[in-house]
Amino acid sequence: MRFTFGFTDDPFDKPPCRGCSSYLTEPYVKCAECGPPPFLLCLQCFTRGFEYKKHQSDHTYEIMTSDFPVLDPNWTAQEEMALLEAVMDCGFGNWQDVANQMCTKSKEECEKHYMKHFINNPLFASTLLNLKQAEEAQHNETAIPFHPADDPPRPTFDSLLSRDMAGYMPARADFVEEFDNYAEWDLRDIDFVEDDSDILHALKIAVVDIYHSRLKERQRRKK
């Protein structure tokens, strides 16, 4: 799992998902083999096995999140960056406004943490450097290899892992939304009748053949 400080909490500061073009929210997935520029996917597109040009669904990948401590075990990296941004926006000493902007910490917690780590800390410069270099510290051997499986593990219902699997139904070994989920729509109005012309019959057979190829691709991506 790889961690990054590259973006702020504002989803508009992140590049969009390459699959659905939606704004990315943590956690999201970065391909470890494609780029630059980075190839980023939301969890939904990742679980559907989205592929584009050279990117394949079985590439190694990294989970991008800043939900881990850096300076204080009770403060995540995301909160550290949010605190610095809030102080810049609201001004030093306006701790109530800083707390209101952060939402996750009280006025007293913001003031105490900022004074301890960024004002009264004799290693202030190295503290900021640690924040910026935390990504590099987590970089070695962070890529997660792709492991195909006939039946992925079954996490506890409504657990964090269950939510991160984004639509997988372990009891059915299936997904709520499959790759090419509407492939069957092209067949819904096809009806083979005796008075079909040879050309019309051949066209209907061609549509069925195309549907079979789409089913094969769906199964390949699921594996």
TrEMBL record:
<dbReference type="GO" id="GO:0006338">
    <property type="term" value="P:chromatin remodeling"/>
</dbReference>
<keyword id="KW-0863">Zinc-finger</keyword>
<dbReference type="InterPro" id="IPR041983">
    <property type="entry name" value="ADA2-like_ZZ"/>
</dbReference>
<feature type="domain" description="ZZ-type">
    <location>
        <begin position="12"/>
        <end position="69"/>
    </location>
</feature>
<keyword id="KW-0805">Transcription regulation</keyword>
<dbReference type="InterPro" id="IPR055141">
    <property type="entry name" value="TADA2A_B-like_dom"/>
</dbReference>
<dbReference type="GO" id="GO:0003682">
    <property type="term" value="F:chromatin binding"/>
</dbReference>
<dbReference type="InterPro" id="IPR009057">
    <property type="entry name" value="Homeodomain-like_sf"/>
</dbReference>
<keyword id="KW-0862">Zinc</keyword>
<dbReference type="InterPro" id="IPR017884">
    <property type="entry name" value="SANT_dom"/>
</dbReference>
<dbReference type="Pfam" id="PF22941">
    <property type="entry name" value="TADA2A-like_3rd"/>
</dbReference>
<dbReference type="GO" id="GO:0008270">
    <property type="term" value="F:zinc ion binding"/>
</dbReference>
<feature type="domain" description="Myb-like">
    <location>
        <begin position="74"/>
        <end position="118"/>
    </location>
</feature>
<dbReference type="InterPro" id="IPR001005">
    <property type="entry name" value="SANT/Myb"/>
</dbReference>
<feature type="domain" description="SANT">
    <location>
        <begin position="70"/>
        <end position="122"/>
    </location>
</feature>
<dbReference type="Pfam" id="PF25299">
    <property type="entry name" value="ZZ_ADA2"/>
</dbReference>
<keyword id="KW-0804">Transcription</keyword>
<keyword id="KW-0539">Nucleus</keyword>
<dbReference type="InterPro" id="IPR000433">
    <property type="entry name" value="Znf_ZZ"/>
</dbReference>
<dbReference type="GO" id="GO:0070461">
    <property type="term" value="C:SAGA-type complex"/>
</dbReference>
<protein>
    <submittedName>
        <fullName>TAD2A protein</fullName>
    </submittedName>
</protein>
<dbReference type="Pfam" id="PF00249">
    <property type="entry name" value="Myb_DNA-binding"/>
</dbReference>
<keyword id="KW-0479">Metal-binding</keyword>
<dbReference type="InterPro" id="IPR043145">
    <property type="entry name" value="Znf_ZZ_sf"/>
</dbReference>
<dbReference type="GO" id="GO:0006357">
    <property type="term" value="P:regulation of transcription by RNA polymerase II"/>
</dbReference>
<dbReference type="GO" id="GO:0005634">
    <property type="term" value="C:nucleus"/>
</dbReference>
<dbReference type="GO" id="GO:0003713">
    <property type="term" value="F:transcription coactivator activity"/>
</dbReference>
